[in-house]
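User: Fold this, then the next.

Assistant: Folding the first:
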Amino acid sequence: MHDRNDERDKISNDHIYALCHYFPGLCISSSKVLRQFHYIDLKLNWLDAQHYCREKYDDLATIQSMEDIIQLKNQVRVSGTAWIGLRDDPNSWFKVMGIDANSWRWSVTGETSQNGYQNWFSKNQIMYLEYCVEIDGAATWNDMNCDALLSFVCYTGKKMCFVFSYSDPLTLPIN
């Protein structure tokens, strides 16, 4: 007798692709990055924190949605404030749009948020010479001088493909 979990383990990405490609009515697929956040209680400047995270994890934390905020708050407890992987690129202010609306870049990609998600602290008063972003215990963001020594949040992520068929959902890592 076959164990159903053994059968699932034998299903490859090629099989899933073929199933969805040739029989699109049988399944719906999507992919997303599942992040595991890691709070590092070591005081470093933003650049050194980025280097540390890239050596031991994937990068400084990337937060793209409220779902990421909830996941971060469930996984780590930020004591005070901590660096995340968001940094201002003042050179882009006038090159791209003539304004600074699109100048914040995620460390891992060097790009702006794909969906425009932001969680800025509303009472931030200083908006110059602060090119790096810290997060507080409530998961709100604040721009800060990159040379400040703070704890930081790293992440590891794995891109997953979710395939839902009429009979049973599957979750598979994407190679």
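Now the next one, as you asked:
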Amino acid sequence: MTAAIDIIKLALADAQVIAEGETPNAATTDTALKTLNGMMALWQLDGFDGFTFPAYAAASADLQLPAEFEMPMRYNLAVHLAAAFASPLRPDIGSLAATTLKKLKRFYLTIPELKMPCAVLPRRYYWNVEACEWLACP
């Protein structure tokens, strides 16, 4: 299982805050962890119905998310970290962040079932598509 620090290191390198393979200092890691938690809180509000994102207290904590979240987390965290550290963002990172998050949202999209209130129907019957028959409104 991947630890939060692994995603943080990759995102910091993608955001050009640290060099590839470099270990971030404690202050940078703390800022990145707070940014990760904030980003996940925003994701909770933004189209992931029925999915609860955990908050991470330590960078060494294992990610309690499915593997398909790792790439969107990495690239979107890099976008947020580039802003936090006033670092120039490479265009490919911004594009990867948008693309991977869009795919993740599409995968977790839930479309609610459409229900027509019987009060607005001209008759007191409705067509049951699954049973292919007219049914009386309850």
